[in-house]
Specification:
The protein has 191 residues and is of the alpha/beta class. It has seven helices and five strands, in the order ααβααβαβαβαβ. The strands form two sheets. It has a three-stranded parallel sheet, sandwiched between helices. The chain has a two-stranded parallel sheet with strand order 1-5. The longest helix is centred in the middle third of the chain and has 15 residues. The N and C termini lie close together (7 Å).
Protein backbone atom coordinates (compact mmCIF):
# COMPACT_ATOMS: atom_id res chain seq x y z
CA UNK A 1 0.00 0.00 0.00
CA UNK A 2 0.84 3.66 -0.15
CA UNK A 3 1.01 6.42 2.44
CA UNK A 4 -2.60 5.85 3.53
CA UNK A 5 -1.69 2.26 4.40
CA UNK A 6 1.38 3.56 6.18
CA UNK A 7 -0.89 5.73 8.31
CA UNK A 8 -0.12 9.20 7.00
CA UNK A 9 -2.63 11.70 8.33
CA UNK A 10 -3.25 9.80 11.55
CA UNK A 11 -1.74 10.82 14.85
CA UNK A 12 1.71 9.21 15.11
CA UNK A 13 1.02 7.40 11.80
CA UNK A 14 -1.24 4.95 13.69
CA UNK A 15 -3.51 4.23 10.75
CA UNK A 16 -6.40 2.05 9.70
CA UNK A 17 -4.53 -1.26 9.65
CA UNK A 18 -3.25 -0.86 13.20
CA UNK A 19 -6.73 0.18 14.35
CA UNK A 20 -8.32 -2.81 12.57
CA UNK A 21 -5.83 -5.17 14.15
CA UNK A 22 -6.46 -3.70 17.59
CA UNK A 23 -10.23 -4.02 17.18
CA UNK A 24 -10.09 -7.62 16.04
CA UNK A 25 -7.63 -8.98 18.56
CA UNK A 26 -8.54 -7.03 21.68
CA UNK A 27 -8.17 -9.51 24.50
CA UNK A 28 -8.24 -12.60 22.30
CA UNK A 29 -4.79 -13.11 20.86
CA UNK A 30 -1.93 -11.11 22.36
CA UNK A 31 0.61 -12.69 20.01
CA UNK A 32 -0.91 -11.16 16.87
CA UNK A 33 1.60 -9.37 14.70
CA UNK A 34 1.03 -6.64 12.13
CA UNK A 35 3.49 -6.21 9.29
CA UNK A 36 2.73 -2.89 7.63
CA UNK A 37 4.48 -2.54 4.28
CA UNK A 38 2.83 0.81 3.45
CA UNK A 39 5.21 3.31 1.86
CA UNK A 40 4.49 6.91 0.92
CA UNK A 41 4.25 7.64 -2.80
CA UNK A 42 4.52 3.98 -3.78
CA UNK A 43 2.89 2.80 -6.99
CA UNK A 44 1.38 -0.65 -7.46
CA UNK A 45 4.42 -1.50 -9.60
CA UNK A 46 6.58 -0.72 -6.57
CA UNK A 47 4.59 -3.26 -4.60
CA UNK A 48 5.63 -5.91 -7.10
CA UNK A 49 9.27 -5.39 -6.13
CA UNK A 50 8.51 -6.74 -2.66
CA UNK A 51 6.89 -10.02 -3.74
CA UNK A 52 10.01 -12.19 -3.39
CA UNK A 53 10.68 -10.85 0.11
CA UNK A 54 7.08 -11.36 1.17
CA UNK A 55 7.05 -14.90 -0.18
CA UNK A 56 10.29 -15.73 1.63
CA UNK A 57 9.25 -14.17 4.95
CA UNK A 58 5.56 -15.14 5.06
CA UNK A 59 4.87 -18.69 3.88
CA UNK A 60 1.34 -18.53 5.31
CA UNK A 61 -0.74 -15.39 5.85
CA UNK A 62 -4.15 -15.04 7.44
CA UNK A 63 -5.16 -11.73 5.87
CA UNK A 64 -3.28 -9.83 3.19
CA UNK A 65 -4.45 -6.36 2.19
CA UNK A 66 -3.69 -4.57 -1.06
CA UNK A 67 -4.30 -0.81 -1.22
CA UNK A 68 -2.91 1.09 -4.20
CA UNK A 69 -4.16 3.59 -6.72
CA UNK A 70 -3.86 7.18 -5.52
CA UNK A 71 -0.24 7.49 -6.66
CA UNK A 72 -0.82 5.54 -9.87
CA UNK A 73 -3.34 7.89 -11.47
CA UNK A 74 -3.09 11.39 -12.94
CA UNK A 75 -2.75 14.37 -12.58
CA UNK A 76 0.84 13.23 -12.36
CA UNK A 77 0.43 10.22 -14.64
CA UNK A 78 2.67 7.61 -13.19
CA UNK A 79 1.09 4.40 -14.48
CA UNK A 80 -1.28 3.66 -17.30
CA UNK A 81 -4.55 1.99 -16.42
CA UNK A 82 -3.23 -1.18 -18.09
CA UNK A 83 0.02 -1.11 -16.12
CA UNK A 84 -1.91 -0.54 -12.88
CA UNK A 85 -4.19 -3.49 -13.62
CA UNK A 86 -1.24 -5.74 -14.49
CA UNK A 87 0.59 -4.83 -11.28
CA UNK A 88 -2.46 -5.45 -9.08
CA UNK A 89 -3.17 -8.74 -10.82
CA UNK A 90 0.43 -9.89 -10.33
CA UNK A 91 0.44 -8.92 -6.64
CA UNK A 92 -2.81 -10.73 -5.87
CA UNK A 93 -2.09 -13.79 -8.03
CA UNK A 94 1.34 -14.18 -6.44
CA UNK A 95 0.23 -13.78 -2.83
CA UNK A 96 -3.25 -15.36 -2.90
CA UNK A 97 -2.06 -19.02 -2.72
CA UNK A 98 -0.42 -18.40 0.66
CA UNK A 99 -3.27 -16.35 2.16
CA UNK A 100 -6.46 -17.32 3.93
CA UNK A 101 -8.06 -14.05 2.77
CA UNK A 102 -7.02 -11.25 0.47
CA UNK A 103 -8.69 -7.85 0.79
CA UNK A 104 -8.37 -5.17 -1.88
CA UNK A 105 -9.18 -1.64 -0.78
CA UNK A 106 -10.17 0.83 -3.44
CA UNK A 107 -9.10 4.47 -3.51
CA UNK A 108 -10.37 6.59 -0.63
CA UNK A 109 -12.50 9.63 -1.43
CA UNK A 110 -10.49 12.81 -1.77
CA UNK A 111 -11.16 16.49 -2.19
CA UNK A 112 -8.55 17.14 -4.82
CA UNK A 113 -9.55 17.08 -8.45
CA UNK A 114 -8.65 13.59 -9.64
CA UNK A 115 -10.90 12.76 -12.60
CA UNK A 116 -9.63 9.17 -12.93
CA UNK A 117 -10.59 7.94 -9.45
CA UNK A 118 -13.68 6.13 -10.80
CA UNK A 119 -11.64 4.52 -13.58
CA UNK A 120 -8.94 3.25 -11.24
CA UNK A 121 -11.53 2.09 -8.69
CA UNK A 122 -13.24 0.15 -11.49
CA UNK A 123 -9.90 -1.54 -12.25
CA UNK A 124 -9.49 -2.47 -8.57
CA UNK A 125 -13.01 -3.94 -8.51
CA UNK A 126 -12.38 -5.86 -11.75
CA UNK A 127 -9.13 -7.35 -10.41
CA UNK A 128 -10.84 -8.31 -7.14
CA UNK A 129 -13.61 -10.05 -9.09
CA UNK A 130 -11.23 -11.77 -11.52
CA UNK A 131 -9.01 -12.99 -8.69
CA UNK A 132 -11.99 -13.95 -6.47
CA UNK A 133 -10.85 -11.80 -3.55
CA UNK A 134 -12.81 -9.39 -1.35
CA UNK A 135 -13.21 -5.75 -2.36
CA UNK A 136 -13.43 -3.30 0.53
CA UNK A 137 -15.21 -0.23 -0.83
CA UNK A 138 -13.62 2.54 1.21
CA UNK A 139 -14.56 5.06 -1.48
CA UNK A 140 -18.15 5.05 -0.18
CA UNK A 141 -17.10 6.36 3.24
CA UNK A 142 -17.41 10.00 4.26
CA UNK A 143 -13.75 10.38 5.19
CA UNK A 144 -12.30 13.60 6.52
CA UNK A 145 -8.73 14.28 5.47
CA UNK A 146 -5.84 16.36 6.73
CA UNK A 147 -4.88 17.57 3.25
CA UNK A 148 -7.51 16.47 0.74
CA UNK A 149 -5.96 13.00 0.36
CA UNK A 150 -4.77 11.49 3.65
CA UNK A 151 -7.46 10.52 6.17
CA UNK A 152 -7.34 12.09 9.62
CA UNK A 153 -7.74 9.95 12.76
CA UNK A 154 -11.50 9.72 12.26
CA UNK A 155 -11.03 8.77 8.61
CA UNK A 156 -8.58 6.00 9.48
CA UNK A 157 -11.05 4.77 12.12
CA UNK A 158 -13.81 4.57 9.48
CA UNK A 159 -11.57 2.53 7.16
CA UNK A 160 -10.61 0.22 10.05
CA UNK A 161 -14.27 -0.30 10.99
CA UNK A 162 -15.13 -1.22 7.39
CA UNK A 163 -12.22 -3.68 7.19
CA UNK A 164 -13.28 -5.24 10.49
CA UNK A 165 -16.90 -5.56 9.38
CA UNK A 166 -15.78 -6.99 6.03
CA UNK A 167 -13.76 -9.69 7.76
CA UNK A 168 -16.50 -10.16 10.34
CA UNK A 169 -16.26 -13.93 10.70
CA UNK A 170 -15.28 -15.91 13.75
CA UNK A 171 -12.65 -17.82 11.78
CA UNK A 172 -10.50 -14.69 11.44
CA UNK A 173 -9.19 -13.36 14.72
CA UNK A 174 -7.05 -10.63 13.21
CA UNK A 175 -7.29 -8.39 10.18
CA UNK A 176 -3.56 -8.10 9.98
CA UNK A 177 -2.02 -10.44 12.50
CA UNK A 178 -1.47 -13.96 13.71
CA UNK A 179 -4.31 -16.26 14.67
CA UNK A 180 -4.01 -18.12 17.92
CA UNK A 181 -5.09 -21.36 16.27
CA UNK A 182 -2.65 -21.48 13.38
CA UNK A 183 0.17 -19.15 14.30
CA UNK A 184 0.23 -17.86 10.73
CA UNK A 185 1.42 -14.35 10.18
CA UNK A 186 -0.25 -11.69 8.08
CA UNK A 187 1.16 -8.86 6.08
CA UNK A 188 -0.66 -5.73 5.11
CA UNK A 189 0.22 -2.85 2.88
CA UNK A 190 2.91 -3.15 0.32
CA UNK A 191 2.45 -6.29 -1.60
Amino acid sequence: GDSITFGTGATADYGWNQLARDALVAGTSPDCVLYNYGTGSELASGGETHLATLQANFPSIDVFTVAYGMNDMPPDPQATVGDFEASLTNIVATMKPRCTRVLMLNITPNTISVPDTATYNAVIAAVATAQAVTLVNVNRLAIQTVDGIHPNDAGHALIAALVVSTLGTASHTAATGRTAATGRTAATGRA
